[in-house]
Design brief:
The complex is a heterodimer of chains A (about 200) and B (about 120). Chain A has 9 helices and no strands. Chain A has about 200 residues and is mainly alpha-helical. Chain A folds into 2 domains: about 25-130, Four Helix Bundle (Hemerythrin (Met), subunit A), CATH 1.20.120.1200; about 135-203, no CATH class. In chain A, helix 3 (about 50-70) packs antiparallel against helix 4 (about 75-95) and helix 8 (about 165-175) packs across helix 9. The N and C termini of chain A lie far apart (about 50 Å). With about 120 residues, chain B is mostly helical. Chain B contains 5 helices and no strands. The chains are: A mainly alpha (about 200), B mainly alpha (about 120). Chains A and B meet through helix 2, helix 3, helix 4, helix 5 and helix 7 of A and helix 1, helix 2, helix 3 and helix 4 of B. Chain B: It is a multi-pass membrane protein. Chain B: It holds the Pfam family Oxidored_q2. Chain B: InterPro entries: CPA3_antiporter_subunitC, NUOK/Mnh_C1-like. Chain B: It is found in: Membrane.
Amino acid sequence: MSVAATTTTATPAVAGALPLQSVGITPVEASLFAFVLITAVLTALFRDVLASIVIFAAYSLGLAIIYTFYRAPDVGLTEAAIGAGVTTVFLLLTIAKTTRPASDARFESINWPAVGVCGLFVGVVAVTLPAFPAVGDPSSPILTNADVTGYYLSTAYDETGAENAVTAVLAAYRGFDTFGEAIVVFAAGIASLLVLGREVFTA
Amino acid sequence: MTDVTFIDVLTTRHAYVLFVLLSAIGLYMMIANENLVKKVIGLNMFQTGIFLFFITSAYRVGGSTPIVKSGGGPYVSPLPHVIVLTAIVVGISLTAVGLALTLRLYAEYGTLRASALREVIADE
C-alpha cells in the first residue's frame, strides 16, 4: 500500500502569500459556530451552577460535532464521551456534595474589569489572525509538509499496520507518550483520593 | 497582506476567530465568576478553544478522515488530532483534581465563593 504520491505533490508555499479568499465559511459551520458561541456565553452568564453545567454539556456536544465536521471523528467521539459525559458527571458530583446558593437573579452581573482583560486578550490574539492560512486551505504549511504530515500518511500503514493514521501515531509512534498519559491519569486519581482523604472512590 | 479587510479575516479564518472568542469566554469565567466550580468550567472552556485551534489547523477542504487506503485521499493531517486526544485526557485529569480540591475547600470552609474563601483564610 503506497499513498506517497497523494501527499508529496506539495509546492512550497509562503504562508503570507496564500490567497485569502480561497476558502470561506459554510452554512453548516456558521450554524454550529453560532450554537457553540451562544451556549458558551450562557454558561458564563447563568447564575445557577446546575444550569451552567447542563449548558456546558450542550456546548461540548456542539464542539464534538464541529470536530467531526473538520474530519476528526476520533477527537469528536472523545470530546463527546469525556467533555460532555465524564466532565459533566464530575461537575454534577461536585455540586451534589456542596450547597447551591439560592439566587434571585437568573444571570450573573457582568464584571467589566474582567471584560476589559478578556478584550485585551482578544485584541492581542486577533492581530495575528490575518497571518494564519485560511481554514481548510490545501496549501497551508501543515498540509503541504511532506516530511511530517506527508511522512505519517504515506508510511503509517506500512510501518505499523494500522489503517487509521491517528491510531498509528497514538499507539505506535508515540506509544511511550500515551503510556505517560496513562501515568498522568493514575497520578490524577491518586491526587484526588489524597486531597479528599479517602482510600477508595465512592459516590 | 496589507489589503486584508476585517470581513475577509472573519469569513476565511472563522474557526480561528471562534477559538479566540471561546478562549476569551473561558478566561472571563476564570476571572469573573466567583463560584469555584464555574472557574473549573471556564478552564475547560479555555482548553476546548485551544483544541478547536488544533483541529482547524489540520482541516483541509475536501479532505477525508485520515484512515489511509490505497488510492484514497487527500487526507486531513492526523498529527494535531493525536495531540488533542492526549490533551483531552490530560484535561479531564486536571478537572478531576481541581474539583477534588474544590470539594476539600468546601469541607474545610463551607463555601465555594472565592471572595468568601479569601476573607476566611485572611482571618486565620
